[in-house]
Each structure stands twice: as C-alpha cells, then as structure tokens.
Design a protein that fits this description.
This protein is α+β, with helices and mostly antiparallel strands. It has a single domain, classed as Alpha-Beta Plaits, CATH 3.30.70. It contains four helices and eight strands; from the N terminus they run E-H-E-E-E-H-E-E-H-E-H-E. The strands form two sheets. Strands 7-4-6-5-8 form a five-stranded antiparallel beta sheet.
Length: 184
C-alpha cells in the first residue's frame, strides 16, 4: 500500500540503467518515493542508514538502539551487521518472509526500530517528539562485491570517525551475520 505522501512506480524510467537489471523488469519490484526512492524486491538484502534530527546519542542511548535492532533479528529480519554511531545508524539486513509468504517491508522494519527506540530514549530523557529524521536511505545490495563493500563500510565507520582504533573495539558494532554468505 502506498501512502498519500508516496508515489508508486511500476518500473524505473530506464530499466537496468541502475546496474540492477535482474529485477528492473519484474512485477515484484516495488518502487516508492518520498524525497528518496525506495526499491523493494522480495528476498533482497538492504543497506540502510538513518540519522538523528539533532544532537547525539549517549552510550546508554546507543545501547537502546542496538538492543532494539537485536530484538526482531531472526523473526522479522536477518541482520548481517549494524553500527550505532553518535548521530546515525547503519545496518545491512534482509527481511524475513513471514508465514503468509510476504516479506516484512523495509519501511515497516524501520518504523519499528525507529519508533520503539525513540519512545524508549524519550522516556529516559523525559522528553517527547521525533528523535529520528523521518526518511531513511535504503539500497538493495546488488551483488557480492557490493555486499562486502557495504559490510566493510559499516564496520569501519567508528574507526573513520576516530571513536576506536579497530572495528572490534566499538561496543555498538554488532555482526551476527556471515559476510561470506552471498546475498540473494
């Protein structure tokens, strides 16, 4: 279902011009748009980024976000890797197919993660209101090389930000998935 603020397109303007010709012509591909395009294709792995509206997350708040992501791992989605930075989140996940054989949509997954973590953080702060920027960036991981590139990007993010010397030293990096597994 497409919300009023979103527009549904059946096919991209130039099928295959995105480097993703395998699904560009298939009916299962759903493209919605707000400010950013959001492609959904059953069985895909997604690289996702979302950020705070303002400020930074404390260490306790980053733990809340990470625990929220962990909560539905294996029941709604499979996480390969996730990192909670002081002002944003990066993760790679694959929606789980439900008993009705429908994927949990990326938008519903993010709504759950962002909604519950915002509610919990606001409660701990004694505040109300939106914590996260409304829209998130998501991208279908198109091949194994891109899978490894995104996995390394997420892992190296705290190192590049100067928070730790090695990815393994960052308390808010979680890697339950295996990078050797090729996305489908």
């Amino acid at each position: 279902m497409v919300h009023n603020s979103m527009m549904k397109e059946k096919k991209p303007e130039k099928a295959g011009s995105t480097g993703f010709p395998a699904c560009a012509e298939k009916e299962e591909l759903l493209i919605t748009r707000r400010k950013l395009p959001h492609w959904q294709f059953p069985g895909s792995t997604y690289f996702v980024t979302f950020g705070l509206k303002s400020g930074i997350l404390s260490k306790d708040e980053r733990k809340i976000v990470l625990d929220t992501i962990k909560h539905f791992h294996k029941s709604r989605y499979l996480v390969t890797t996730a990192v909670i930075m002081p002002n944003n989140v990066h993760l790679m996940l694959k929606p789980v197919v439900s008993e009705s054989e429908a994927d949990f949509s990326v938008s519903k997954i993010l709504q759950g993660i962002k909604g519950f973590s915002a509610w919990t953080i606001n409660k701990s702060r004694g505040t109300k209101g939106a914590l996260w920027i409304e829209e998130s960036y998501d991208r279908i991981v198109r091949d194994y090389d891109e899978f490894l590139e995104k996995w390394n990007y997420i892992r190296e993010n705290p190192v590049k930000a100067g928070l730790v010397q090695a990815p393994e030293d960052y308390a808010f990096l979680w890697e339950p998935g295996e990078p050797e597994e090729q996305p489908s």
